[in-house]
Design a protein that fits this description.
Chain A is built from 12 helices and no strands. By secondary structure, chain A is an all-alpha fold. Chain B is built from 10 helices and no strands. The chains are: A mainly alpha, B mainly alpha.
């Protein structure tokens, strides 16, 4: 019974969330363009699907993704798991949390490599670069970028160091890279930061961070819990720019053979 | 529909594999409330499939033709209004933002930053989402303006980075994490396809623009602006 009550409660708020986009499309189609809506029936069916789907997803999120992310963070940072039962454990030493970083990196790598929107970006990067950027190579590089990002983000939560320092350092790297990267890849690289964090990845990564901040001694979820997604969206930019730079450098150094190798540097 | 279900399952699969591996070989403990979690996973997969199915049959085709028709119409006024509306409304419907905003409200209440009553939780998370949506709307407007004028993207992005860093010292500490996350959270299932369609459509229509080079970059702004606006929201609400 509780499931049904939940369902209708979430359904009501979902209606409110989807209404603006529907209203806007109707307004522009009818008032600005003065056209009727094409294939009205399939549009209406689509909207009903969107509303029911979003409702089910949000309920499932609360039941599965959030609890799992938090449970994993709790179990992996549990003092009993780390140092064994019966040991006093009051302060956090970042070296004790190895499995947390491995888990963060594994989740980051696995979800990114399978991410459909990254495949689309890789396809377009291949097109822009006239084939010099390898699709699978780019996906692997970005996935490694996200893995490193999330692992570093977990390290930040464990140590409680300020988030902005890391992001500032990342920005400086991006800015320097921008001046050396091939021009055509820049806009695509900047976009890739946003697209790699999908609807399924975001909740589980957010829950991981919050769970960590709750269990690691001396950390406050409100201060330290968020920030993992920021890492996960900064590192792909660096990875794509670096990959673009690498392909240019590689192509330059390969064609003129050995005698011109020194000029290439 | 079967294809959608498979796609959503593939989305979830890597997470399930990694977690199963860690449970079996590292933690060696069962997950608590496993039945609930499996039921929840089922809801996530079926919900996401229905959601994407609905977007692709209902909203994406009409949104894309609308973006193209408005780009062709040549009225900059309506084009910019549409850009704002598209960014705003797609962000309001973005599932991961709804989830993270609610979570953030719960965390803020647990740390006594806001009143733990249900009403104030909802108003905090709504305020968060509205400030993100307004910022994404403005970001798309700036991005469209950039495509129209052909300004190189990196000047604007580097300027944006500087703004983020300049605002950070003045923002309350408790908002910085969620603000930095907001950029990555917003650009997801609903926003990315529609906003990219707008950018690529525009770059195709304007002469002298290459859709592959000039059509991108809208998402980059949409993940940068929310950082500033959420910090602004924090300055207002936590003071």
């Amino acid at each position: 019974m509780q499931v049904l009550i939940d369902f209708f409660e979430v359904l009501l708020t979902t209606l409110g969330d989807v209404a603006p986009i529907v209203c806007m499309i109707v307004f522009f189609q009818i008032v600005v363009l003065k056209r009727s809506i094409p294939r009205l029936k399939s549009v209406l069916i689509g909207v009903v699907h969107v509303i029911i789907g979003l409702t089910l997803f949000l309920i499932g999120l609360e039941k599965a993704l959030f609890p799992v992310g938090e449970a994993m963070a709790r179990q992996l940072s549990d003092p009993h798991f780390i140092v064994g039962i019966g040991v006093e454990y009051l302060t956090a030493d970042w070296r004790e949390y190895g499995w947390v970083y491995v888990f963060g990196a594994a989740i980051g790598f696995a979800t990114t490599i399978a991410e459909p929107s990254l495949m689309a970006v890789a396809y377009k990067a291949n097109e822009v670069s006239a084939g010099t950027i390898d699709k699978l190579g780019l996906r692997i590089v970005v996935a490694i970028g996200v893995a490193v990002g999330i692992a570093l983000g977990c390290f930040r939560i464990v140590t409680g160091t300020p988030l902005y320092l890391y992001i500032l350092a990342g920005y400086i790297v991006v800015v320097i890279q921008t001046f050396y990267a091939p021009k055509k890849i820049i806009a695509l690289a900047y976009d890739s930061g946003g697209v790699t964090t999908s609807t399924v990845t975001v909740p589980i990564v957010a829950a991981l961070g919050l769970g960590l901040a709750k269990t690691v001694p001396g950390r406050d979820p409100a201060l330290d819990g968020f920030g993992l997604i920021a890492f996960a969206s900064l590192f792909p930019i660096i990875a794509v720019l670096a990959y673009g730079q690498f392909t240019v450098w590689y192509a330059k150094n390969r064609q003129p053979r050995k005698e011109e190798k020194e000029d290439g540097l | 529909m079967v294809v959608r279900l498979r796609d959503s399952a593939v989305d979830l699969l890597p997470i399930v594999l990694v977690i199963a591996f860690f449970q079996a070989f590292v933690i060696k403990q069962p997950l608590p409330a496993i039945a609930d979690i499996l039921f929840g996973c089922l809801l996530v997969v079926s919900g996401l499939s229905l959601f994407i199915q609905g977007l692709e049959t209902g909203l994406f085709p009409i949104g894309e033709t609308l973006a193209e028709a408005l780009a062709r119409k040549g009225s900059i006024f309506w084009l910019l209004i549409f850009s704002f509306g598209l960014g705003f409304t797609t962000t309001i419907a973005e599932p991961s933002l709804i989830a993270v905003a609610d979570k953030s409200a719960a965390i803020a209440a647990a740390s006594n930053l806001i009143d733990p009553a249900q009403e104030s939780l909802e108003s905090y998370s709504r305020g968060l989402r509205i400030s993100v949506a307004v910022s994404v709307g403005l970001a798309v407007v700036v991005g469209v303006f950039r495509i129209l004028k052909g300004i190189p993207i990196h000047y604007l992005i580097i300027g944006g980075y500087c703004c983020v860093m300049a605002i950070t010292p003045f923002a309350p500490k408790e908002i910085i994490g969620i603000a930095y996350d907001a950029g990555g959270v917003t650009t997801s299932t609903v926003t990315v396809p529609l906003v990219t369609a707008l950018g690529v459509g525009l770059a195709t229509i304007i002469r002298g623009r290459n859709p592959l080079v000039d059509g991108f970059g809208l998402i980059a702004f949409a993940s940068l602006f929310p950082m500033m606006f959420v910090m602004g929201y924090g300055m207002i609400i936590f003071n």
